[in-house]
Amino acid sequence: MGSRGLALAPPAKNVVVYRNGDPFFPGRKVVVNQRRFLTFEAFLNEVTKSIHAPLAVRNLYTPRHGHRIAELGDLQDGCQYVAAGFEKFKRLDYLSHGRKELCGTRNSDSVQVMAGFLPPTFHSCRNTGSLHALGCFCCSVFRNGDLLSPPFPLLLSKSTPLQWDVLLATLTEKANLRSGAVNKLCRLDGTQVSGGEELVSGDYYVAVGNEEFKKLPYFELLVPQHSAYGTLWYVD
What we know:
CATH architecture of the largest domain: Roll
Mean pLDDT: 76
Number of strands: 11
Number of domains: 2
Low-confidence stretches: 1-6, 97-131, 226-236
Structural class: alpha+beta
Order of helices and strands: HEEHEEEHEHEEHEEEH
CATH superfamily of the largest domain: Doublecortin domain
Radius of gyration: 19 Å
Distance between the termini: 39 Å
Shape: globular
């Protein structure tokens, strides 16, 4: 009976979840395993933790039309969803907002910094030709001591000078470190970056707070050879 139950158990699904009303959140991959999550509410509790939601997640919606997901069985493997509390679904272009504002001139800061959501082709910062054409370069940033969260993209404009304090403020907002504000940016070997001129497009870095840098296998564990983002497709 036990082996039969395992055979009939539905396979795990991989989905990416965005925060409702946050166009800059890069999305988090969440595994839907019905052996682990016996109820939809249990899965929503896991989503709350995964995306660091300020309030408990109680609803999931499709990103384009805001169709509400009612149960675990409605989730489709390789799809994307928007997590919300009890508030209404906020209609934003979650899937391509980052590209529209990639290197725009409306930023009130003197430095153009975008560390938010990018289309799937930009997530790995490998599309260097397209980035160069847009006058930008991209780095990927891990969170110090965090081997569960994938790196987030950091886009910088080549056309304006980089203000380091503005960059650290942006990193603080996007990294959401448990220790608080990001005070320094380090290379994977732990050496500290002291200025924007030292950043190299396509490289990986670690955002660090007041604590010491933790030398861990970030790249080996969090950057798969074939990124899952490349296989995701849109849900209508």
